[in-house]
Design a protein that fits this description.
The protein is mainly β and 219 residues long. It has no helices and 18 strands. The chain has a single domain, classed as Jelly Rolls (Sandwich), CATH 2.60.120. Helix content is 0%, strand content 37%.
């Protein structure tokens, strides 16, 4: 079994101004055509060898919108979203394959300035389990590039779903908002699961056949 997250849109800007989104292509609408009929969001990169998926009406059938291999879901805004493999269940004591998305911000963050992050989550129809304490946002001063398919060993500054609640919503996109006080010079944002295997918490909710989640945001 595995856990997947999808992202539709993500907004990150100075709270006091709240105008310029520092994330290019935040709703993944600007696409690049890849081989084998696949698409990928322009400006976004893979910091590891994991291969996150881009869901688009212009992609091959398994990765189209709204019907795709993880279920049925319309985009929150626009017509695209992306998928991240958060945790692939392996025997106890084994590490787990992970996928991440990385974006270079439009400008470096200013020390002690407060920034607002907004995104939306929806659990995939095919999901048998809910999770908590999983999806994290890591902000880095430099680009991350690691030759691995396993966990990035960084501590995320933002934890999207709190450790008190399991995320079980399958029918709609749920909005999440956060504030972040910059240390200064952060330039890259990475989204994914940074927990080690022992830190993965799950709850059986029935239905579906895989562990999968979706994520979007607003412009």
């Amino acid at each position: 079994m595995r856990l997947l997250i999808t992202i539709l849109l993500i907004k990150f800007c100075v709270c006091e101004v709240y105008t310029q989104n520092l994330i290019p292509n935040p709703s993944f609408e600007d696409t690049i055509q890849l081989n084998f009929g696949l698409t990928f969001p322009r400006f976004w990169t893979q910091p590891t060898n994991g291969n996150p998926n881009h869901y688009s009406p212009h992609s091959r059938p398994e990765w189209q919108v709204p019907q795709n291999y993880v279920g049925y879901q319309l985009a929150y805004k626009g017509e695209n979203y992306v998928g991240i493999l958060m945790h692939k269940m392996l025997p106890q004591g084994s590490d787990s394959k992970r996928e991440y998305f990385q974006i270079k911000l439009e400008d470096s963050l200013k020390k002690d300035s407060t920034y607002c992050l907004q995104l939306f989550l929806s659990l995939a129809d095919s999901c048998q389990y809910a999770s908590r304490n999983q999806l994290g946002i890591y902000l880095s001063n430099s680009e991350v590039s690691v030759n691995t398919t396993f966990r990035l060993q960084y501590k995320p500054q933002i934890l999207v779903v709190s450790s008190q609640e399991y995320f079980e919503e399958k029918d709609r996109w749920v909005e999440f908002n956060f504030e972040y006080i910059a240390e200064g010079k952060e330039k890259y944002l990475i989204i994914g699961n940074f927990n080690d295997t022992s830190g993965v918490e799950k709850k059986f909710i029935g239905g579906g056949s895989n562990l999968i989640i979706r994520v979007p945001t607003t412009t």
